[in-house]
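Assess this one:
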Amino acid sequence: MNADERPIAILLSHREIYQAEGAGAVTSCVRDMAACSRYRERIVVLGDAVSAPFAETRFLPVTKASWFYGRRTARYAQGAANAIRDLNPALVEVHNRPSYIERLKKAVPHTPLVLYLHNDPQSMRGFKTPAERTRVLQQVAAVVCVSGYIRGRLLDGVSTSELESKAHVVLNGVDTAVITPCSDQPRRKEILFVGRLIPEKGSLLFAQAAVLACEQIPDWRFVMIGAWGFTNSESPKEYEKQVMAEMQKLGDQGEMTGYLPRRQALERLSSAAMSVIPSLWEEPCSLAVIEAMAAGCAVIAARRGGSPELIGDAGVLVNQDDPAQFAERMVQLALNAPVLEDWQQRARTRALQGLDIRHASAGLDAVREKYVG
């Protein structure tokens, strides 16, 4: 079989869920990119078995190797290596797991490997030091980074131009033909937080900011969409309880929907006036930011990680992890309709021009083309 006929294998990490129910940001990225790729018919996604895998591409469940290989993660990695060897692909893309590279290199020594980084490489096992990152970079054909911020973290302490040339930036994207502003009614006076209710996402900061802002804009509502995980639990975590207690102070101005399927969350975004992303960690390439901009929300976000690259001059960036700062920005926009509308239009335009999934997928295909034609 010629290289231009062999499949492109995309390997998800252990516990990623390749189906609509429970899918996280990495899975959504893989599915959306694959659906728009000119290599779509050749793509095979490998991952943990699921009951209803996405239909956009062929899916191959990974059978874990025997107990001889130790823990579940090692058994999964070896099982994936075995499946990829049998698949004989033209290219292998490994998402977020540099620890899989050496095992795959042994299984398919002559097949180009591409490492796809969605998170800070310096937080990953076997990839934290410059020496570790250098060793992996020497083994792969290329590394795809979801933002310039992530590329910078990858190359921190790695100085050779040969290795630097392997690192490419491909921003995430969404389908701006599907995620659109609601056109049949005025946007609601709602300020949304959409994301997991975990400390890193800043949900408590949002609730605190809402409490500070609510009296100045009494005709506005503050809506929190999300839960600790990707389901609604009857036993909330202690952090969730803190967020709930703060949101309750808003009375009728507050709403907590719990976890919503992506489609329903996007419907709320498409009709809301603003979206706030008050991340307390260095967001690599926030899907929440991209979706909000595509939906035409005015975006207020923390100046962290890759968010400034995504937003550019089309949103409001906040420098401090301070509820008062976020509250001030909410109030300023809520009380000035022309400025609010201008930010909404800028956000949508930015999404159309630079954050559409077709643009992102073409960027990824340009990396693939070097190895599969």
